[in-house]
Amino acid sequence: MSRWSPAPTSASVTGYISKCIDDVTVSKTITTRPNQKPWMPAEGSKACTAQRIHGHFKDTGDTRHMWEGIQAITNYKKTSPSCDSDATLPDALNDFYAQFEAQNNVAAEKSIPPQNDQMLCLTVADVRRTLRGINPRKAAGPDNILGRVLSECADQLADVLTDIFNISLSCAVVPTCFKTTIVPVPKKPTVSCFNDYRPVTLTSIIMKCFKKLVMRHIKTQLPPSLDPLQFTYRSNRSTDDAISTTLHLALTHLDKKGTYVRMLFIGFSSAFNTIVPQHLIRKLSLLGLNTSLCNWILDFLTGRPQSVWIGSSTSNTTTLSAGALQGSVLSPLLFTLLTHDCAAMHSWNHIIKFADDTTVVGLINKDNESAYREEVRELVSWCKVNKLYLNVDKTKEMVVDFRRAINGSSVEIIKNIKFLGVHLAENLTWTPNTSSITKRAQQRLYFLRKLRKAHHPSPKLTTFYRGTVESILSSCIITWFGNCTSFDRKTLQRIVRTAEKIIGVSFPSITNIYTTRCIRKATNIVKDPTHPSHELFTLLPSGRRYRSIQSRTSSCATASSQKPLDS
């Protein structure tokens, strides 16, 4: 199998699938005009409109159709930022996205696998299962093969695609037809420069399935000793854990006298685009990934034909051998493995990572910031060595200090910052966060009232409430609800009561949701000895209860997810 090249085979198979789609699929264009006969009476038109709207709510588990129905009820007109129609824009953007290629002066060289190298070999069952899981609504890639075709023909295509995937892995060659096209998506409603476009990759759906299978294998090969403060792509880890760990470190330290905390929120410039593949492969080898797989990843990242596609205009093709694809399922995982050795030098400092969101937490004693400042200097040096560029405009620092003054001078600090979706205030109070949550939840109640007015039954309204209102109220709730003020808690509970009156059913209170989530999270942490918070849970001599965290102030105690287990 390894004697054949996967590129011609892949191109032939995808071309044949496209031909079959063209032969079988019938496309019709129907034009409907406002004055088209036969005209419909007003009563009939209203009945048809009502029937069409109610059709969106037949399946309470289909949130997409429910949102489409809500948009029809509220006459919602979606306005998305559009790209400039300038014909020269695709080529200009392509040159802009390729700017980091000139800075990559490290040649990509594959290593010779040892004789005992265990090559990844995919099974037909795994490929078939992945094909069946494709979303039928997923947009086609450059090969114009629809997700629905791959999903419904999984049994027929699984064998041949398994052969192609295994040939690719054995040869350590990714077929060119499986590589990328760029579709720029505006980041802002008003675009003023090239940096306001986000380069989203548009790859073949077949390649997306391939990358999912490879990603699952990589995750099983990673050592358990990987940096515990990297919370992405780790089992039993989420943004909840990253925020909780950061807050616990800060509050535990602030519980001591004469202390304060400095938090540096790092922002990178085009983090994925600056990755040097050869540096990444060297780190993957040190982590224990076999040589054949490392060679495949190296080929995946290098020699990529890139073109920018805007509307009907396509740029010239540029071949790149630097960076990782934005929008690819593999890229965030590869970035976390690249940064796995970015760890704190001093015991008083901690580096919290969630993909490319990096935060340096400095625990300062007696106004001695030397260790913290040395840590920041070392981090800057590490970024230079690994070709990651700090964005000064995105990088922010927050000082958490409960003292009134330092050396007689007031501390100048930023008011708050959004950290992994949660608003952190300089005094670690949660009023800005709960205000933001309340505003968003109240906006969703408007849609709930519209659905009630349209006489939809309670089960459908309950599904909508849990998916769009309760999910907002309970987002990262274990990190902030414990230290909320009584006023903020009543404000949040008032939203729940309003939803109960609209629908006519009872829902769990915010306090009950918080307690349930805390117990679930704490139970998972206790079962996971690799979790950074595992050491916080120690049993009392009786073996029936857990030891409470000792603290001088109430802020640290109430913020802990251990509290529900103690009560």
Characterise this structure.
- This protein has 567 residues and is α+β, with helices and mostly antiparallel strands.
- The protein folds into three domains: 6-22 and 87-225 and 287-329, no CATH class; 239-271 and 337-425, Alpha-Beta Plaits (2-Layer Sandwich), CATH 3.30.70; 431-566, no CATH class.
- The protein has 20 helices and 14 strands.
- It has helices spanning 6-24, 42-55, 63-73, 89-97, 124-132, 147-152, 154-171, 205-221, 239-254, 277-286, 291-301, 330-338, 370-385, 431-453, 458-473, 477-480, 486-503, 510-527, 554-558, 563-566; strands at residues 181-186, 197-202, 259-266, 268-269, 304-306, 309-310, 313-314, 318-320, 349-354, 357-365, 389-390, 396-400, 416-419, 422-425.
- It has a four-stranded antiparallel β-sheet with strand order 9-10-3-12, with helices on both faces. A two-stranded antiparallel ribbon has the order 1-2. It has a two-stranded antiparallel ribbon with strand order 4-11.
- Helix 5 packs across helix 8 (205-221), helix 14 (431-453) runs antiparallel to helix 15 and helix 15 packs antiparallel against helix 17.
- The model is unreliable at 406-412 (pLDDT under 50).
